[in-house]
Design a protein that fits this description.
The chain is an alpha+beta fold. It is built from 17 helices and 34 strands. It has three domains: 205 residues, no CATH class; 199 residues, no CATH class; 205 residues, no CATH class. Helix 7 packs across helix 8.
């Protein structure tokens, strides 16, 4: 009696558990029955009655309008989800330039159900006919058409895994307002079996970058791996404005190029035409071929390990392009050998014309006159104000027949239209040139400043390119050019320039042959020529060749060189406006000299065609007088017309070596010099000398002697 309640207590939990099991079995059977019924209904009806609910639900999930204009099927067949839609369209956001993100005549697919739950979408079969995809970014790159929530930002485009595919007639449109790129592409037809496509998949198309048309061909070399989310071996080639750009690399996904190293190669007739595509202006080049590694990181494109050639010159280094609010370029470049012809574009010359026809023809091609050398190529003002840049460029050697240049060190900065080359240094003939050049395009016309400094440089090496041997010449030259002008071309800025140019010759020596030719001391020159002592040096005590520039016209201020035997002085000048030269240089002997010409050498012509006129009117008059004396008196009397009594006043070297103006020059005894002018030239109102003005100036100059 006492144990009966315990038995009842044990039996109740067992009965309860059995009841729950029966209920669970009934519920499971009920669910399976419902699922089976749903499956059966869907299988029989092909799920066609779900078209409108599908459009509504898909539209809410994607925040887009989804429409199906033809047949629709959605059911299990038997274990995969079969989805069929004809005339399907998925709309674009309101801000897009086209109404639909995606349209297709027909989609027939099999989808693994579990892949929808775990986010790894897998199509076991896909047939796509005449699909059209529109991919577009917002101008600020914060959203794109294929990311269905603006809050998530613009995510990379992702593709599902596809086991078996038949894709025909697919087109893709890509638009990026920030980069100003529009591309219309066509995908080659794809037919795969058992998750193997079997050959490369190609893409071809055309488009516009900014205002430049281009064509594009690309191939996916590993489509089977891509279909299984493996390695994506991609190669692409773009042609634009006569340039060819090749890109190759392995992508983590078919559309993801972020932070992926890509091998690039660019080649063409002119590198400037390639960079002009993205709105960057550089001097034009000859044929180029460059290779680099490209890595895209957001709006930053880094080109590293750059190496190649342009013209007959080499180039290496790195370049970074930042496509932000303003386009910005940063580069560090190195050149081992720069051909002087490839340097011609930096002053506005076409290098191809320089190579084939010379500098004068290249100047004429810029719009300059037929007899001019200064280029009239205008600065690209509008383009220079649209992007910024920084450049550090070193050049070991410049190949030049005339002037040996090496160790070039260039630092460039472009900031909102102000281009600064500072410093620009290079070694020339064992001397150094340092300069600061500023081209400020913000004022109209541009304000241009030239400040060029030449450290002491051996004359022999400097003049060797013009046939002057170094042996016997120990003189040096140093100088500075400071000019400021207004204009959008080199010619215009110099034609309006004001400033000063001065070159100082400290003590040294020069070949006798060269010195005597310059001084026209015929007697000494002939004597030494017969004695074969042409390399005997002549001592230079000091010298100054300086010009004052006003309104583009340079006047000698002064030209004064004191040697052991003579004092060389010059008058006249030249014009940056019309590039005319009208100067006269004369040497007066300090001691008696027989057969001295004692008359100025005329420097005439233009920058392009300079001329030397050693037979001045004064010298012809001397010859006439000598001939008359020889006729009426004796032949010996004729010689007297060519005698220099040697009364030249030696120069005080202090003012000369300090680069002082003409009015500060003195004789060795401290008296003001009256023979070096005052830094003016005869000129018309516009600074251009007329023939009569030049003649009057020459007459006035000769009258001093």
């Amino acid at each position: 009696m006492d144990h009966a309640p315990a038995a009842d207590t044990t039996a109740r939990p067992t009965a309860l558990r059995a009841g729950w099991r029966r209920r669970a079995v009934r519920i499971a059977i009920g669910l399976l029955t419902v699922i089976a019924a749903i499956w059966l209904v869907l299988f029989i009806t092909k799920g066609r009655f779900l078209r409108h609910p599908f459009e509504s639900i898909a539209g809410r999930l994607t925040h887009r309008t989804v429409t199906i204009g033809g047949d629709f099927q959605l059911y299990f067949a038997p274990w995969r989800i079969k989805f069929v839609a004809e005339k399907i369209a998925i709309s674009n956001p309101d801000w897009a330039s086209r109404p639909n993100l995606f349209t297709a005549d027909r989609i027939d697919s099999r989808i693994a159900p579990l892949s929808l739950l775990f986010g790894k979408r897998r199509f076991t079969r896909l047939e796509l006919t005449n699909g059209a995809v529109d991919l577009e970014w917002t101008p600020d790159h914060r959203a794109n058409t294929w990311t269905f929530s603006a809050k998530k930002g613009g995510r990379p485009l992702e593709f599902p895994r596809i086991d078996v595919a038949t894709v025909t007639g697919t087109t893709i449109r890509y638009r990026d307002p920030r980069m100003r790129v529009i591309a219309d592409l066509a995908l080659d037809d794809i037919r795969s079996r058992d998750a193997r496509i079997g050959h490369a998949v190609g893409v071809r198309g055309k488009g516009v970058i900014r205002t430049t048309p281009f064509t594009l061909t690309a191939q996916l070399l590993s489509p089977d791996a891509t279909a299984n989310r493996g390695r994506n071996e991609l190669i692409a080639r773009m042609r634009a404005a006569g340039n060819v750009v090749d890109v190759a690399g392995t992508l983590p996904s078919i559309s993801d190029v972020e932070k992926v190293p890509l091998t690039t190669r660019a080649r063409g007739r002119d590198l400037s035409s390639l960079l002009d595509i993205i709105g960057v202006v550089i001097p034009r080049t000859r044929t180029y071929d460059l290779r680099a590694q490209l890595v895209k990181d957001g709006d930053v494109y880094r080109f590293t390990r750059m190496k190649g050639t342009f013209g007959d010159s080499d180039l290496a280094g790195k370049l970074t392009v930042t496509n932000g609010e303003r386009l910005h370029l940063d580069s560090e470049l190195a050149t081992d050998k720069l051909d002087i012809i490839d340097a011609a574009p930096f002053i506005g010359y076409n290098p191809d014309i320089v190579a084939s026809k010379g500098a004068q023809a290249a100047a004429a091609a810029t719009g300059a006159g037929a007899q001019r050398l200064l280029p009239d190529a205008a600065l690209p003002v509008a383009t220079m104000q649209r992007f910024d840049a920084g450049l550090k460029w070193t050049i070991r050697t410049v190949r030049s027949r005339r002037v040996p240049i090496s160790n070039v060190d260039l630092t460039l900065a472009l900031d909102r239209g102000k281009l600064t080359l500072s410093p620009l240094r290079f070694a020339m003939a064992r001397g150094d040139v340092a300069s600061d050049l500023v081209f400020d395009t913000r004022p109209r016309p541009s304000r241009v400043t030239y400040d060029i400094r030449l450290s002491p440089t051996p004359l022999g090496r400097l003049l060797a390119g013009w046939g002057v041997a170094e042996a016997g010449t120990t003189g040096t030259v140093k100088g500075r050019v400071q000019l400021q002008g207004r204009g959008d071309t080199i010619h215009d800025s110099l034609a309006s320039a004001n400033g000063r140019m001065a070159f100082i010759l400290p003590a040294g020596s020069l070949w006798t042959r060269n010195a005597q030719l310059a001084e026209l001391d015929i007697g000494t020159f002939v004597q030494k020529m017969f004695e074969e002592r042409l390399k005997e040096p002549v001592r230079i005590n000091c010298g100054l060749v300086a010009f004052t520039v006003r309104g583009g016209v340079a006047a000698a201020d002064p030209i004064l060189i004191d040697t052991s035997k003579n004092v060389i002085i010059g008058r006249g000048g030249f014009s940056f406006r019309n590039e005319a030269i009208d100067m006269a240089i004369r040497a007066d002997a300090k001691k008696f000299s027989l057969f001295s010409g004692q008359s100025p050498i005329g420097l005439t012509g233009s920058f392009a065609q300079p001329g030397i006129d050693p037979i001045s009117g004064d010298l012809l008059a001397r010859a006439g007088a000598g001939l008359g004396l020889a006729v009426v008196a004796t032949p010996l009397a004729g010689v007297l017309a060519f005698v220099d009594v040697g009364d030249a006043k030696a120069a005080a070297c202090g003012p000369v070596l300090s680069g002082a103006r003409a009015n500060a020059q003195r004789t060795s005894k401290g008296a003001p010099r009256q023979d070096v002018g005052n830094g003016t030239t005869a000129k018309s109102k516009d600074g251009r000398q007329t023939q009569s003005e030049a003649k009057a100036q020459r007459k006035k100059f000769l009258g001093i002697f």
